[in-house]
Write a structure and sequence with these properties.
The protein is mainly alpha-helical. It has helices at 23-41, 49-69, 75-80, 82-106, 108-118.
């Protein structure tokens, strides 16, 4: 979800007034937007969105493996936790993907227009 599409009380009156974008959430979305920006910068004649998306998924898996290893002293102990680690990250990804697909479907016309605005003029 790009920063422009984040829910907040001033942009979307339908959002429950109790929802507050905390500084931590703002930082989370800003980091995500920065990573999306890097991914978008890779698009071009040498790589289409499917290829960039595959690289982004690989990078997420690689980075998550590194993060998951923090705190372990031995590789054998880490390996024993593999199934639980995969389950944790899969659950997180499934929820984030589902939330973003719902958001994209609900805001489809707006996002399509944003995508059109981002295309270079020929």
């Amino acid at each position: 979800m790009s920063q422009d599409n984040m829910p907040n009380n001033t942009q979307n009156d339908e959002i429950d007034a109790a929802l507050e974008i905390t500084p931590e959430m703002q930082a989370f979305y800003q980091r995500a937007d920065a990573i999306i920006g890097v991914a978008n910068s890779q698009l071009g004649s040498d790589a289409h969105s499917g290829q960039v998306g595959a690289s982004l998924l690989y990078a997420a898996a690689r980075y998550s493996s590194s993060v998951a290893s923090i705190g372990f002293v031995k590789g054998d102990d880490f390996a024993k936790e593999k199934d639980d680690i995969v389950e944790f990250y899969t659950k997180q990804y499934r929820q984030m993907l589902s939330d973003n697909l719902t958001d994209y479907a609900q805001n489809f016309d707006k996002y399509i227009q944003l995508n059109q605005d981002d295309k270079p003029v020929k």
